[in-house]
Amino acid sequence: MLSRVHHIAIICSDYERAKKFYTEVLQLSVVREVYRKERDSYKLDLALNGEYIIELFSFPAPPPRPSRPEAQGLRHLAFAVENLETVLEHLKQHNVEAEPIRIDEFTNKRFTFIADADGLPIEFYED
Known about the structure:
With about 130 residues, this protein is an alpha/beta fold. The protein has helices at about 15-25, 85-95; strands at about 10, 30-35, 40-50, 50-60, 75-80, 100-105, 110-115, 120-125. One of its GO terms (molecular function) is metal ion binding.
């Protein structure tokens, strides 16, 4: 029935700031960018290693949403990484602060969280 996650859709408050975060800080590649005049909205399709994963939307004055990892709704977006220190150093170069590294009590793998340009939680989980 289900084969895989197709994409994750994110609505941002500041399109240019969010676009910069996802393309420059997280280094996702742009698949396509479309301005939808009838909705006064941009849609940016982003890929990781050639796989389409995120639709980034802008809308005029979207309402804010709780974003803490423990808030009701989608908890966070997680990326698998090979080396957490390499990721943390890259984030530091872009003035992005990460939470202290935690250890998964079931797998003993290391992980940490950051916030995107709108404060949405993003996890980096070391494989």
